[in-house]
Design goal:
By secondary structure, this protein is an alpha+beta fold. About 45% of the residues lie in helices and about 15% in strands. It has a five-stranded mixed β-sheet with strand order 6-5-14-9-10. Strands 7, 8, 11, 12 and 13 form a five-stranded antiparallel β-sheet that branches.
Length: about 525
C-alpha cells in the first residue's frame, strides 16, 4: 500500500499524471448496457452495511478475548505477530487465557466489556447467516439482471486504467469521473469486484477454519489457510481491508458529487436533488440506533439473546457440522511446546487432599439414568482400556494447541454402566469452580460422548495429567470447543435432559456467560 503510494508520487513527479479514458456521456437511450440502481441494489447494499457493522463489532469483541494473532498453531506466548494488549505473558506464575482477555469499549465492541465473547458470538454467527443470505440474493440478482457487467471486469485494460485513477487519487488529484449511474471508473469497478468476489468469499471460508468440528474431521480444510491461526489472522486482516475500503468508498462518494451519488444508491434516481441524501443520512442514524439497541438488548436481556442466537444458528450447525465424528490426528513432532491453561484450580479440601495423596483415594462417580451405576478408582479406569491421540485443541477465545492425550474412551465406560434408552445427554461435573463461583460442569450429547475420540483423559503428552491441566481426569471431545472439556472431573451423570442441572443451559459457561449450547464452531 505504502509502496503503491510512493510509486504513484514518483510517476507523477517524473512523467506527470497518466491519462484516464475520457468519460463517455450516456443517456438511457444511448446505452446498451445495464445501468442505474434498481431497488434491490439499494436494499441489499444497506442490509449488507448493517450486518457488516454488526459482524465487525462482535468480531472485535471476540478478538479481544484473546487479543493476540499468530501465524503458528501453537500460540506460544511471544510468538504472536500482533497483540492488542500491553501485557507480556508472565511465565513464573499461573496466568490463564481468561486472565488475558481485554476490555473493549461498548462504542466499538458488541456488546462491549470484558470477556463477553459468549454474547458477541451470538451476534457474530446470526449476523453471518443473514449477511451470507443477503449476499446470495444480491449475487443472484446481479447475474439474473445482467448488472454483473457493471462490476465484473471483462478486459485486462482494467489494470492500467485503474492504476491511472489510483495515481490521481494518491497524489490528491481528481480525474474526470464517469457518471456512476451508467458506468464506474476502472478503479471503482476493480475494487467493488475485489470486495464482492474475493474478500467476502475469503471471510466466509476463513471463519469455519476455526471450527473444531470441521477441521478435526476434514484436515484438508485446515490446510487451506495453513492452520487455524493463519485462518484466524486472515479473518482479521479481511476486516482491516473492509475498513480501508469503506473509508476510501465513503470519501469518493463525498468527493465526486455527494447528492447525486446518494440519489443513485438510495432512491435510484439520477439528478442533483437532495432527497436521496436526506434519506441516506437518516438511514445512517437508524444504523447507529440499531447498534445502540443491540448493545442495550444484550446487556438487559442476555438470556434472550442467547436463546435467539441458538435458535438461529444451531439448526445450521446441526445440518453442517454436528454429525461428523472428529478423526484428525497429528504427529509427535507437531505437539505444541506450550499449552495455554484455562480455568481456576480447584480450591476444595476434597480435591486438595486427593491431589496430595496422588489421587489414590479418588473415585469417579458415574450415576443417573444407567443400569449399572459405578464408582471407579484410577486403577480401575486404567484397567478398562486406553486410547491415545494427538489432537488440536480449539479454545473459544481463539488460541489453539496440539497435545497428546491418553485415557479411557467414554464409549467404553458406557459399555460398563449401560445408559438407559431415554438418555440424551451426559453431564460432567468438576471439582473446580467457574469464574463467578459455583461448580464447573458441562454436558455433551450422547452422540458426541460416544465418538471414538471422546476420552476421559489422565495422560497428557505421555505423562500423568498435571494439576493445571485437569488431574486426575479431564475430558477430550475433539469436535467441540475447549470450554466443554471439563477438567478435574468429579462425577458423571447420564440424563434425559440437562434442563434440571443448575440453571439448565447445559453447562457452567452457558449458564453464566451465555455461551452457545452447541460448540461446534
Ligand atoms: N473445571 C474446569 N474445566 C475447564 C475449564 C474451567 O474453567 N474449569 N476451562 C475450559 C476451557 S475454556 C478450556 S480452553 C480448557 C483448557 O484446557 P487446558 O487448561 O488443559 O489447556 O479447559 C476447559 N475445562
Ligand atoms: Mo476455552
Amino acid at each position: 500500500m505504502v509502496l503503491a503510494v510512493i510509486t504513484a508520487y514518483v510517476q507523477w513527479a517524473a512523467i506527470g499524471l497518466p491519462s484516464v479514458p475520457a468519460p463517455q456521456q450516456f443517456t438511457p437511450q444511448t446505452t446498451t448496457l445495464p445501468y442505474g440502481f434498481p431497488a434491490w441494489i439499494g436494499i441489499t447494499h444497506y442490509v449488507n452495511l448493517l450486518f457488516m457493522v454488526l459482524l465487525a463489532r462482535s468480531g472485535l469483541q471476540i478478538l479481544m478475548d484473546h487479543p493476540r494473532l499468530y501465524w503458528n498453531v501453537h500460540c506460544t506466548p511471544g510468538s504472536e505477530w500482533v497483540r492488542f494488549t500491553p501485557i507480556q505473558v508472565p511465565l513464573d506464575r499461573l496466568y490463564t487465557a481468561k486472565d488475558d482477555a481485554r476490555y473493549l469499549s461498548p462504542w466499538i465492541g458488541l456488546p462491549g466489556g470484558r470477556h463477553t465473547l459468549g454474547l458477541a458470538r451470538h451476534w457474530h454467527f446470526a449476523s453471518a447467516l443473514f449477511w451470507v443470505l443477503n449476499g446470495a440474493v444480491y449475487i443472484t440478482l446481479l447475474f439474473v439482471t445482467n448488472h454483473w457487467r457493471r462490476i465484473v471486469p471483462t478486459s485486462w485494460r482494467i489494470f492500467p486504467d485503474a492504476w491511472a485513477m489510483f495515481v490521481h487519487y494518491a497524489t490528491f488529484h481528481l480525474p474526470p469521473e464517469p457518471n456512476g449511474f451508467y458506468q464506474y471508473n476502472a478503479l471503482q469497478q476493480l475494487s467493488y469486484f475485489v470486495v464482492i468476489f474475493v474478500l467476502a468469499p475469503l471471510s466466509i471460508l476463513t471463519g469455519p477454519a476455526m471450527s473444531p468440528a470441521l477441521v478435526n474431521r476434514f484436515s484438508w480444510y485446515r490446510k487451506l489457510p495453513g492452520n487455524r491461526q493463519i485462518g484466524r489472522s486472515i479473518h482479521f486482516l479481511l476486516l482491516c481491508a473492509y475498513v480501508l475500503f469503506v473509508i476510501a468508498h465513503v470519501s469518493m462518494v463525498l468527493l465526486t458529487g455527494f447528492a447525486r451519488n446518494m440519489n443513485h444508491i438510495v432512491i435510484g434516481t439520477d439528478d442533483l436533488l437532495r432527497f436521496g441524501m436526506y434519506i441516506g443520512l437518516s438511514g445512517l442514524v437508524i444504523l447507529l440506533l440499531l447498534n445502540m439497541m443491540a448493545n442495550w438488548a444484550t446487556w438487559l436481556f442476555p438470556r434472550a439473546i442467547q436463546r435467539v442466537g441458538d435458535a438461529l444458528v444451531n439448526p445450521v450447525l446441526r445440518l453442517l457440522l454436528a454429525r461428523h465424528a472428529p478423526r484428525a490426528e497429528y504427529t509427535v513432532e507437531e505437539i505444541s511446546p506450550f499449552m495455554w491453561p484455562n480455568g481456576k484450580l480447584p480450591t476444595s479440601e476434597e480435591w486438595k487432599s486427593l491431589a496430595a495423596g496422588g489421587f489414590k483415594d479418588y473415585r469417579l462417580k458415574v450415576c443417573g439414568l444407567v443400569e449399572n451405576p459405578v464408582e471407579l478408582s484410577l486403577e480401575e479406569l486404567l484397567a478398562m482400556g486406553k486410547r491415545t491421540q494427538i489432537t488440536l485443541h480449539h479454545c473459544i477465545q481463539g488460541w489453539s494447541g496440539i497435545a497428546e492425550w491418553g485415557g479411557l474412551p467414554v464409549a467404553e465406560l458406557m459399555k460398563l454402566v449401560r445408559p438407559k434408552p431415554d438418555v440424551k445427554a451426559v453431564v460432567f461435573y468438576s471439582f473446580g469452580e467457574g469464574l463467578e463461583g459455583g461448580q464447573y460442569y458441562d454436558s455433551h450429547t450422547i452422540d458426541n460422548a460416544r465418538r471414538p475420540q471422546t476420552l476421559l483423559s489422565y495422560e497428557m503428552n505421555f505423562k500423568r495429567l498435571t494439576d493445571v491441566h485437569g488431574a486426575p481426569l479431564r475430558l477430550r471431545v475433539e469436535n467441540q470447543l475447549g470450554f466443554k472439556m471439563v477438567k478435574w472431573i468429579k462425577s458423571i451423570e447420564f440424563v434425559a435432559d440437562f434442563k434440571h442441572v443448575y440453571q439448565g443451559e447445559g453447562g457452567y459457561n452457558s449458564d453464566h456467560e451465555f455461551f452457545d449450547t452447541m460448540a461446534d464452531i
